[in-house]
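Q: Joint fold for the lines below.
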Amino acid sequence: MTLKSLMISSALSAMLLAPGAVLARDLTVAIQNNLTGLDPTNVNDTLSQTSLRLVYQGLFGFDKDMKLIPLLAESYESNKEATEFTIKLRSGVTFHDGTPFNAEAVKINIDRLRNPDNNLSRRSLVSMVNEVQVVDDLTVKLLLDAPFGAMIASLAHPGAMMISPAALEKHGSEIGRNPVGTGAFTFTRWSADTLEVARNDNYWKEPAKVDNIIIRSVPESGARMAMLQTGEAQFVPNFPPELMKVVEANPNLKVETSPSIVEWYVALNNNKEPFGNKLVRQALNHAVDKDAFCQVVFSGLCTPADSIIPKGLAFHVPVGEYEFDLDRARELMAEAGYEDGFSTEVWANSNTESLRAVQFLQQQLAQINVDVNVVPLEAGVAAQRIWSIESPEDAEVQMYYGGWSSSTGDADWGIRPLLLGENVPPSMFNVAYYADKELDAAINGAIGTADPSERAAFYETAQKLAWEGAPWIFLGVTDLIAAQTSDVTGVHMLADRGFLLEDAAFTE
Amino acid sequence: MLSFLIKRLLGTIPVVLMVMIAVFAFVHLLPGDPARLVAGPEATAQDVAAVRTALGLDRPLPQQFLTYVGNTLQGDFGTSLRTRRPVVDEIGMRLMPTVWLTLFAMVWAVALGLLIGVVSAVRRGRWQDYGGMILAVSGISFPPFWLGLLLINLFSVRLGWLPTGGYGTWQHFLMPSFTLGLGVAAVMARFTRSAFIEIAREDYVRTARAKGVPERRVIWRHSLRNALIPIITMVGLQFGFLLGGSIVIEAVFAWPGVGRLLVDSVSYRDYPVIQALVLMFSIQFILINLLVDVLYVLANPEIRYQ
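A: Joint structure:
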């Protein structure tokens, strides 16, 4: 290499390394895991779903406070039984490939998702739809085979976002690598660890203020932190609490916390003694100090639960508190005939945080002579031993520590899959094997109507009944932490651990 | 030599077949239902069943195995269960980053390792020797993630000279390849030192010195050449290991390599990707061993293969 070429190459590399004046219009987001796919109807992790909101939109969606808003729909009406939903669509919207968005496109999308032959993993969002009618170019009517009051919330789920019919036709099963939607950004490329999207200048709303958004997977939290410090990334959602102090000390960075819709609990298998006894279940709830739980497990970034669903979900009502009271717990145990306690085991995912949580519970419950053995389960093993068992009698689980986030933002998906009597594994997630006729009636009642005030009344009843029945040890609702550089505005975390980037802008 | 190569290559076929059987049996014996994992935490039984059918996991195991062997022989490695991209693409995207990183790491390892090893051996018992061996022991004992984060903090955050991570320009290679190479360099240094010390006792070294061959030539030509055989063996082995990807380095430097792909695939029970990766790793090892055998001949013309 001659001296001259050496000088040129070092000059070039200096340009490449110059802190990003030229690149300032691109927003880089550093996330922990890799995305798993780009077909919204066929991905299941929050990161992929939320990233796809840049390219795709649904008929309905969420604002930054996780409140349901119409997106590609303008309005809807339903009959009282919640079996017919008529949806008015926004006019003048086109997909990125120029295909017009209209009632026909909606029909193609919903028919594709609900068709069992397509084997799409989000099919259950619309499986209750019996027929999609095109009323006119901008009106569709969904006819359901049974009442389903949470229909609109289901349509707001990212799994029901609208894909260009022409692209579906063109790419077939390859649509998961060639996304074409109506969103504020168009797809550029997806490599091993990076998704890149570019501003859609023909967006039906005001076009985005950044040129490109780059979503990069950086597994190590210290490295994500370093990227923020060097300006290589501007936004890091799901930031680790232990690094908060470093961010707060840096004037160029800021960190924001907000409540999530993730509630943590210990499900008690009601088919196993002594968890079939309500007094025991209530005693366990009184024996755990929830404030201490939040401190110990989540460094205080957590609020004790006040209902079976977190505050951020529609129709949540604060129903009570099992105050930390060991005397009351011992009294209830004695009343149930367990003054000498009992031995049991708790299953939890084998990550540091979950293990810290169950070890804390182990120590708390020891105070009322309940001897808890901690069993960590790797994800695949958990899938097999908890969720894939054939019948309730085969279930070996006694206590299970886990969290739930209702990604439709609605009470329905926060309660029904977890506590309706018939929804036991493997069909759904009632791992408490809780079966309470009154509760079932309230949950089903809420599904049977589309009237918000009636749904609210049913869900209030459901929350009160389930709280009193204590199928779980109610623990806490965690906070979300996001870190960003101070020169960026309009980036938000959503309560379901996703994020909204559409309004991102640089201030300088 | 040629007939030796052909024989060795033919000999790999049964090994590869055995690897295929073993890895297929192994992944299917792992507890955990991939359909459940792929369908995600919110999937209903109906969704899981749909995924299972879509992935072909509802077919009998022997049938799945025959399909797997048949397709593999035709070069079709299937589709990732997790991302639904072809396995060839999944691995293809990450193979070259891993290969390049391994090569650069080996450059560090060989350069630093040989230098420190030779200097330590030649200056045996003196401060250069102690210094070199202290470096080597530290190199082995430094946790790479910690060293990696230290380097990031120094060169990216404080000095702003290098990008924190990712795969791209040559600057992106410096820190990860150094971090990865350092551990190997340390092993190399110790290896080189002991090989050298042994050779220094040989008659031909004494003869060379007695003949008045300059010391530099004695070291780099007479001794090093003869010490090369164990060193080549070691380099070959380490090279094979590093080609399997390093989960720690890839995590710290956000490197899109095969190590992380393997870990992700195992936790998702992504059978086709696991099978293809393990198969690839074993073929790489076989080829590297073959290459090492060939290099022996180049290093020492006395070695002959029939």
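Q: Anything notable?
A: The mean pLDDT of chain B is 85. Residues 98-301 of chain B form a domain with the MetI-like fold fold (CATH 1.10.3720.10).
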